[in-house]
Amino acid sequence: MRTYELMFVVDPRVSDEDVVTMTQDYKNMITTGGSQITSEENWGRRKLAYPIDKLNEGKYMLLYVSSEVGKTALPAVEHRMRQNDKILRYLTVRTDEDLKRAARRPQKPTAGGPADAPVVDNAPDDEEEV
Amino acid sequence: MARPRKVFFRRRKVCKFCADKIDYIDYKDVKLLQQFIPERSKILPRRISGTCANHQRPLQQAIKRARHLALIPFTTD
To answer: What is the strand order of the sheet A2-10 is part of?
Structure first.
């Protein structure tokens, strides 16, 4: 099972309803392609750190997708986003490997030291090893 | 005899991510990333921030991702 995060920035002149319908289209593409939307976040209107196409704001949407290996519509979705000029930016990130690694790491110090060991002592050790 | 020796006091730099036990550096966490991009929006080097190599790498990746999505600037002019 692989998990992805798909974030995209929509032109702020597109109405909120249209953003939702647009997102729904992409979500349908993803689900029909055999993946699941685990959750989504709508950040709404947000100021851009730098102007894109002379626009200073953008509407941010974030989809969390999970799918089995080889069963992803994400390349197709990206392709569609590239063609859609209402989408200023998009980014797909595969997160399962990094999150797994992150979940594994904190177990080491707890396994090495007893629970009553002061955290302050553990920290420098970590730093030298890692 | 004992020569007067200059004593240097240098605050020991600690990797923020090791200290705070942040294992996954998220490109969406603008507040966190902002601590590593000073005025000119360059990525703060390890020798200044004290971040360990294992954390600087994902940090750099996260900053670049955030830049692409215009969450943080490439540069300030």
So the answer is: A35-52, A55-67, A2-10, A87-94
Q: Determine, for residues B58 and A50 on separate chains, whether the beta-carbon distance falls below 8 Å.
A: no
Q: Residue A106 and residue B73: Cβ atoms within 8 Å?
A: no
- Given the structure tokens 């605050």, which residue do they identify? B11
> Domain spans of chain A?
2-96
> B12 vs A65, which has greater pLDDT?
A65
Measured between beta carbons, the chain B residues lying within 8 angstroms of A101 are 23-24
Predicted local confidence at residue A15, as pLDDT: 93
Q: Give the domains, in start order, of chain B with CATH numbers.
A: 25-68 (4.10.640.10)
A-chain CB neighbours of B75 within 8 Å are 50
Tokens of B16: 């923020």
| Region A2-96: CATH code | 3.30.70.60
User: ipTM score here?
Assistant: 0.75
Long-range contacts (CB closer than 8 Å, 24 or more residues apart) made by B25-29: B25/B55, B25/B58, B25/B59, B25/B61, B25/B62, B26/B62, B27/A93, B27/B61, B27/B62, B27/B63, B27/B65, B27/B66, B27/B69, B27/B71, B28/A7, B28/A62, B28/B66, B28/B71, B29/B62
Taking the Cβ of residue A49 and every Cβ of chain B, the question of whether any pair is shorter than 8 Å is answered with yes
Q: Which residues of B touch A102 (CB under 8 A)?
A: 23-24
Q: Does B31 touch chain A (CB under 8 A)?
A: no
